[in-house]
Design a protein that fits this description.
With about 450 residues, the protein is of the alpha+beta class. It has helices at about 5-15, 100-105, 160-170, 195-205, 210-220, 235-245, 270-280, 295-305, 310-315, 340-350, 365-375, 415-420, 420-435; strands at about 20-25, 35-40, 55-60, 70-75, 85-90, 110, 120-125, 135-140, 180-185, 355-360, 380-390, 395-400, 405-410. The chain has 2 domains: about 5-190 and about 335-435, Alpha/Beta hydrolase fold, catalytic domain (Rossmann fold, 3-Layer(aba) Sandwich); about 210-245, no CATH class. An 11-stranded mixed β-sheet has the order 2-3-4-8-5-1-9-10-13-12-11, sandwiched between helices.
């Protein structure tokens, strides 16, 4: 299947940038030669990089300062000329795709160890998806990561990101006519807009709320806790109790300890800069770091590493374009499309394969919610619900449909299961791109 030349067809794909999207492409081998700047060393990593990394900018505007999109391109460590190309976009929306690189599927990760004031270290990730694929990580929407514009606000909406991604990949591939779309992958995706309602039966099934509260929520709120009527006092009372019960639970990963930044009481996973300020406070000031198992600790290490001048120089960041690196930039983003389910239906009708996966301990986007919108597509089941295995142990459960869609859970996985269950996630991906059953 050749890539369509008109933008409308591409929009069906890139509407999915609302989610965490990997677009699987096959391109002519001569089109993935380096076009940006090679990165052979990175501060914090011992020795030369054992993989080929290129970084660069692609301009989408009329001038040098307008809409410069930053990317990281890593060649496959296997067979870069024949392995597929993955375009990776992180969710949020508004989060740098470098989080996919450093936390999920890239060839290196931060070494989590006690911070001593020196530059955090990088180590290799054995389960990097670059073992079998070329990957390009893109900082979109504008204002994310190292992408920049004179004014990012006019460029931040669902449809604008769709068109920006289309233009980016076209420009980066130099209008390559031989691009073939092989499918797409989504992890723990917000899709229907009803995920918050599906949270109720999920947390009830996980034993976080009582039978009585669950039944009451069904009666008073009718199972709908999105935009509750302000006059529905019984529902509001139930909701208050509901949120109190979940207050100290990390919804992104029910197995993770709940962490609060003590610098700002009562908030969940607060901005990393508050922790950074405490670290750099005078020695006479009390310094209380969170538990090293907390995600906020890794986030602090990332901010210390990526904002270091030597790191920016190694990545070939243009001086004066970005102040402090923004992990996520959600301000002023315009949500224009409430559900991407119709786009899945369109893609399925056109025969594009897909892999939809869920960590089964994510309460923010429950796997049961993903199952619900997949059922709404009304496709026949080819391979019914069954376990899939890694090292003779159940790694999760899977089902395949007649529209070439594969759904899989990752047992014990979080909202980003590549981080918490890297072996299972890697094996799942390798089997899928190899056209093998999970």
């Amino acid at each position: 299947m050749k890539m369509a030349s008109n933008s409308k067809k591409w929009c069906y794909f890139f509407q999915l940038v609302l989610l965490c999207l990997t677009l699987l492409l096959q391109i002519a081998s001569n089109q993935i030669e380096a076009g940006g700047s090679k990165v052979e060393y990175l501060p914090g990593f011992d020795g030369p990089l054992p993989f080929q990394l290129e970084t660069g900018y692609v301009g989408l505007g009329d001038s040098e300062d307008d809409m410069q999109v930053f990317y990281y391109f890593i060649k496959s460590e296997n067979d870069s000329k024949n392995d597929p190309l993955l375009l990776w976009l992180s969710g949020g929306p508004g989060c740098s795709s470098f989080c996919g690189f450093i936390y999920q599927i890239g060839p290196m990760k931060l070494k989590v160890e006690e911070y001593d004031g020196s530059l955090p270290k990088l180590i290799s990730r054995p389960q990097s998806w670059t073992k079998v694929a070329n990957i390009i990580f893109v900082d979109l929407p504008m204002g994310t990561g190292f992408s920049y514009a004179k004014n990012v606000i006019p460029h931040r909406s669902d449809w604008k990101v769709v068109h920006q991604t289309h233009r980016f990949i076209r420009k980066w591939l130099a209008e390559n006519p031989d691009l073939i779309i092989n499918g797409y992958i989504l992890g723990n995706p917000v899709t229907s807009g009803l995920e918050h309602n599906d949270q109720i039966p999920y947390v009830h099934g996980m034993g976080l709320i009582s039978d009585e509260l669950y039944w009451s929520l069904q009666n008073t709120c009718h199972g709908n806790i999105i935009n509750v009527d302000s006059t529905n006092k019984p529902c509001l009372n139930d909701m208050q109790y509901y949120y109190e019960l979940l207050e100290n639970i990390e919804l992104l990963n029910l197995l993770e300890i709940y962490c609060v930044d003590e610098n700002i009481k009562g908030t969940r996973q607060n901005p990393r800069r508050s922790l950074a300020q405490k670290i750099k406070a005078p020695l006479s000031s009390p310094v209380t770091l969170p538990d090293m198992r907390c995600q906020i600790y890794g986030g602090f290490l990332l901010m210390e590493w990526i904002n270091d001048p030597a790191v920016r120089k190694a990545l070939h960041i243009r001086e004066g374009t970005i102040g402090k690196w923004n992990w996520c930039y959600g301000d002023d983003y315009v949500f224009e499309i409430p559900s991407s389910v119709p786009f899945h239906a369109n893609l399925s009708a056109k025969g594009y394969p897909s892999l939809i996966y869920s960590g089964d301990h994510d309460a923010l986007v429950p796997f049961s919610s993903t199952q619900r919108w997949i059922r709404s597509l009304n496709y026949s089941i080819l391979d019914d619900w069954r376990p899939w295995y890694l090292n003779d142990q159940v790694a999760g459960y899977t089902r395949t449909y007649s529209n070439q869609m594969t759904f899989a859970t990752i047992r014990g996985g979080s909202h980003t299961p590549q981080d918490t269950k890297p072996d299972e996630s890697f094996v799942m991906f390798v089997r899928w791109i190899s056209n093998k059953p999970l």
